[in-house]
Amino acid sequence: MCRHLGYLGPVRSVSSLVTEGPRSLVRQSWAPKDMRGGGTINADGFGVAWWGADGFGRYRNPAPIWSDPFVTEGLSHIGAGAVMASLRSATEGMPVERSACAPFTRDGWAFSLNGVVRGWPGSLVSLAERLPVAELLRLESPTDAAALWVLLYSRLRSSRPEQALMRLVHEVLDVAPGSRLNLLLGNGSGLWATAWYHSLWTLVDEDVAVVSSEPYDDDPRWRQVPDRHLVSARPGHLIVSPMEVAVS
Fold it and tell me: Which is the catalytic residue, given 2, 8, 100, 176?
């Protein structure tokens, strides 16, 4: 359905994180390796969020990432030690517009979805109606990903990221069985992700933590995340837990 990547580590240019490597995120926009029936290319827009010395920033474009000169001409001048990037493969019937492109952000958090909520929008009505109207009015775009972000953010107020992700995935599956829910969340110091149907990989050592839909190079440290597992990662720290087990 989409591709996404989260990075924590030494400061490097935002551009390098999406353009470098034999299977870079840019290449994954037209030649992904493991879409699992979720389309063939990821050309319905992209976005990048970063946490750097000058604060938090975000850039999004509904055009294919390979067609935007700012990726190499602008993002190459932005350095950051924490980055989230996302490519979009829009679900049929959902708009292709800038506001529909992840990462979705708020208060230093960033979020991306690789997947689809079955039965959207009707399937999420019972979850959405529990939110204050003011929260629903924050919905950036009429898409399942934007709705999941509003629902997840409401849970982050009272739960740790692991708990919020676990709770949301199971609540969505209760009302929308068969949904594909690879969620990626970051706040500049940690990365959290779920693998529910789609592919997910990690590369973690003492200096770097990367969580990505696919490896962007041939580094032997890449490890595939088993399906139905949750990831918590930062440099020097990686926990991969079964999603059926509650996170305490």
Answer: 2
